[in-house]
Amino acid sequence: MYAYNLDGKIINKVLNLKRPNNVDIAYGFEWGNEKIDIAVVTERKANSIRVFRLPNLEPIDDGGIRVFEDEEGKGHNEPMGISLYTKATGSTNPVYALIGRKSGPSGSYLWQYELYTDENKVVKGKKVREFGEFSGKKEIEAIAVDNKSGYVYYSDKIAGIRKYYADPELKDNSQLAFFGQEDAKRDHEGIAIYRTGKDTGYILISDQQANQFLVYPLDGSSEDKHTHKLITSVLVSTNECDGAEATSVHLGEQFPNGMLVSMTNGKAFHFYDWRPIQNEINTSLKNKL
C-alpha cells in the first residue's frame, strides 16, 4: 500500500501484505483519547482488513482484523472491496467498514463491521450487519459511501449499481436503487462521489472496457431521490479502470475545485483536475434543456 502526494511522489508505503485489494480512509476516528485519521485496506489472502494511522501508515490493529469468519464457500472469506462510513451522532462519530468479497450469497454479500479501540489502543472490528443483493455474474469490488446522505453504493460488475442505507442501526436492508444496468460497455467498476452542495453532486462509475466514467446525479431526480439517470459519460486516458476516488476540496492551484483519481493498468494512477470534467457535465446538462 502506497501513499502519494499531489505531485505523484511516494511519501510512505507498507510492503509484504498478502494481496491487498482496496483501501479507504476515515477522518476523526476515536483512538483512545485521540482523534486520528486512518486508512483501512483489505488483505485478501489473510482474510483480514488492516488499519493504519495516517499519514505515516503506522499499523494500529495488532496484525489485522479477521473478516468473513466461518464462511466456507470458495472465495467467500476473501475480502476485496471496502468503504468506510463515518456516522455523525454528535458526541461520537463511529466508523464502520463495509466489505465485499470474491464470492458470496445474494442478500448477504457485504458484511459491515464497527471499528473500535480496546484498552490497549488496538483497533478491533465487530460485525453488525450482513446485506446486499448479488447478480452472481462477477465479484463485487467497488464500494463507496456518501457520509452526508448516509447511502452506500456498490458495483455489481456486469449487472449495475446498487444502493442501500449505510447506517446499520436503521435495520433496513432493502435495496433502494439498482441503476446503470444498460449504460456500461460491460463492467461497472470504480465508484467516486463528488459533492457540489449540501444535497447535490455526482456519482461517477468507471465504465471499464470503454475507458470512460459514467456520471449520475447524487440527489436522484426531482420525482424520486433514488432514481439515478445517466447525465453523461466522460472519456479519460485511464485504461481499464478498477478503482477511483474524487473530492471537491480545494487542493491548491493545480486542483482548485478538487480532483478525480483513477487507477489504470500498469500499477499506476491518473490525476484529473475536476474543472474540465465539470465543463463536460455542464455542457451535457445544457444540451438536455
TrEMBL record:
GO terms for molecular function: inositol hexakisphosphate 3-phosphatase activity. Pfam families: Phytase. Residues 1-281 form the BPP domain. This is BPP domain-containing protein. It comes from Arenibacter certesii.
